[in-house]
Write a structure and sequence with these properties.
- This protein has 152 residues and is mostly helical.
- Helices cover 55% and strands 5% of the residues.
- It is built from six helices and four strands.
- It has a two-stranded antiparallel ribbon. A two-stranded antiparallel sheet has the order 3-4.
- Strand 3 (144-145) and strand 4 form a beta hairpin.
- Helix 1 packs across helix 2 (14-22).
- The longest helix is centred in the middle third of the chain and has 36 residues, at 77-112.
- It starts with a helix and ends with a strand.
Length: 152
């Protein structure tokens, strides 16, 4: 299969296939005639596995470890259980952070409803945001930072 065919069969984009190939998660051989990447059925099996693992929140680094263990004919299932056990508390914490963010956003929308629009004057950018006060971050109401996905 060519990249596009594998992508279609695996329900991903061609760029995803190329990325996973560069990461060493799936492998291809080069067609000696035209130098195209050619993938076999094993690549499709792995691609589908990667998609399923991603849906469970596994990172590509996690998936690479799982695949390496499987390639050594050693069951990766204990590792998978351990990884999931390790990730779940972080996911729950992120959900709490996002809930707190949603509450702050709802509060801001309510309080901004009847406020007039301001014009930047060199001392301010947007009076809505600058006029809003937020509680300081704490363990109970972490501040979610969208660009990093981490609490600040």
């Amino acid at each position: 299969m060519k990249v596009a065919e594998l992508a279609r069969e695996g329900n991903v984009t061609a760029e995803t296939v190329r990325h996973y190939t560069r990461q060493g998660l799936i492998t291809a051989r080069r067609d000696p005639v035209n130098n195209y990447q050619r993938f076999d059925e094993q690549a499709l099996v792995r691609l589908k596995f990667i998609s399923q693992a991603r849906q469970l929140g596994f990172s590509l680094a996690d998936i690479k470890q799982i695949l390496q263990q499987a390639d050594q004919h050693d069951s990766p299932c204990p590792m998978v259980r351990d990884l999931l056990k390790e990730h779940l508390p972080r996911v729950r914490e992120r959900i709490r952070e996002l809930e707190a963010l949603a509450e702050r956003m709802e509060h801001a929308m309510e309080s901004w409803q009847d406020m007039p629009d301001g014009v930047p004057d060199g001392n301010s950018v947007c009076c809505l945001i600058e006029g809003q006060s937020f509680p300081p971050p704490s363990e109970e109401n972490g501040t979610y930072t969208p660009d990093t996905g981490r609490s600040s």
